[in-house]
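Lab manual, section 2.4: Encoding a predicted structure.

Procedure: take the sequence of the chain (224 residues), apply the prediction step described in section 2.3, and record the output as structure tokens. A sample record is shown.
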Amino acid sequence: MNLEQLNAEIITCRRCPRLVEWRERVAREKRAAFADQPYWGRPVPGFGDPTARILVVGLAPAAHGGNRTGRIFTGDRSGDFLFAALYRCGLANQPTSTSRDDGLRLRDLYIAAVNRCCPPGNHPTPAERDNCLPYLSKEVDLLPRLRVLVALGSFAWAGALMALAANGHATPRPRPAFGHGSETVVGPYHLVGSFHPSQQNTFTGKLTPDMLEAVFRRAKAVPG
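Recorded output:
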């Protein structure tokens, strides 16, 4: 299997009835600001550089972001904040992302999520998380140069540890706690934590542009 085949599998997934119903309802009802736009309304695959050394792990697509555009972090405020930081760090060719065909290219970086469908209230259940985790594990295996995972938020941090464990890389003991700038080594991989670039964090100053940029500069500096 390659990344293209994996993404084709992800897009057709219907394992979680609650998430299927929600993502499709959002795509039908739409937000007023996007009423004239077609919604993706399906699971959202990962994307980026297939030779990436860095994998960004998010929580899940936004209901009116990735669930609308078909690309994670594309078309929402979290993505605006994230892609601006990636651009400043030389990991993206442009600082914004509005659609799947907007010309965005990632350099040495791939973006995925723990869950591939938008969940109600941004809260997947443990069963929904576990249904989706094999996709993240496969992405790790299919990125041959991967050395660093950047987890955006505590949910992504826990999901990344579980995905790596499923691939045979045991979680260090004591279990590493999430925090902004937290780091741990899991097998051949370096895991780095960052606060999620949600409006709740960026509007309050809990996460600043400099803080997020520092995380990605640290990820770029990891040898290997």
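Check your result against the sample. The longest strand covers residues 189-194.
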